[in-house]
Prior knowledge:
Pfam families: RTC, RTC_insert
Shape: globular
Strand order of the largest sheet: 1-2-4-3
Oligomer: single chain
Number of helices: 8
Number of domains: 4
Order of helices and strands: EHEHEEEHEHEEEEHEEEHHEHEE
Strand content: 25-35%
Structural class: alpha/beta
CATH superfamily of the largest domain: RNA 3'-terminal phosphate cyclase, insert domain
GO molecular function, one term: RNA-3'-phosphate cyclase activity
Distance between the termini: 27 Å
CATH architecture of the largest domain: 2-Layer Sandwich
Domain RNA 3'-terminal phosphate cyclase: 15-337
Family: Belongs to the RNA 3'-terminal cyclase family. Type 1 subfamily.
Domain RNA 3'-terminal phosphate cyclase insert: 186-284
Amino acid sequence: MTTSEEILQIDGSIYEGGGQILRNAIAFSCLLRRPVRVWNIRAGRSNAGLRSQHMTGIKLISAMSNGRLEGATIGSTEITFYPSTVNAGRYEADTQTAGSVCLLMQAAVPCMVFGNGSIELRLLGGTNAEMAPQIDYQLLVFKPIAAKFGLYFDCDIERRGYYPKGGGEVYVRSEPVKYLKPVTLTDVGHVTSIYGRSFVSGQLPPKVARLMADTAKATLKQKMNNIPIKMDVVKEPNPNTASGIILVAETTTGCLLAGSGLGKRGRSAEDVGYQAASSLLDNIFHGGCVDDYLQDQLIILMALAKGKSSIRCGPLTLHTETAIHVAKQLTQAKFDVVNLSQTQTIIECEGIGLENAVM
């Protein structure tokens, strides 16, 4: 029986005080096979405590690792998780809302590759949701950068899901790895191309997607007139009304930087396109090798890797500061943040070199 002294402890009210602390803590607990207690869950939010999406995520990790959860009820502000081995197999997680499947993936994917065999996840919920990366971002940006660490996964979108109904269906598959490799991303190079996807669904006409794309292009051309821009304009075969856009810039050194936006009632298509383009330009001109949305997602990979990783980025986001704090609390990874200027930072990490015992 595990004693209380052996249980890792995390205060869920620190830094950004949201669901990210819980996701990362549960993932590290699963990977290290050490129990964790998280309290003050989402204390920084107006509706503190566990919500349906967070419950879905931690129950998925618990199922994958044949674990045991205590206190996992809607509204709970404290949980304790006792993990075991991550087992091969098929698992399903349903947010039953438009809760983001991408946030489920953030916690689950690192755990999957340290399992004892092939794993497939069927994730149900929102694929393009507010306050979370769009599924397109995870495929176009996170997936290829994660591959540099030796973390590989396949992801198929069976059906997209939008606010407020959700209904998206995504399949994620992985094979086990021995360990993750350290990564150095400190030379951003020069932007060679920009590509993206502008979509509408439901009752919105295709011209709305075209307006978003055209506005984004025009905004980008003001600053990057010589860079080729390719946009896919899509009318999704989905009855739920939604719209959105994602833009990705690729550089000579293989860096990927993005900007995105989602439509909502009362917001013009031009405004959505302009926001996405402006976000991308901000990420390009701060001179980092990763954008503001990737920073925090790489912290767990850096902490697990065998060796020293160095990543140049813009100013640290609060989510990144939170992720570093949780990683330092729960692992022996050594982080150092070097401020090069007001707009550029290098994150260095000597990872713990976690190895998969079954490989």
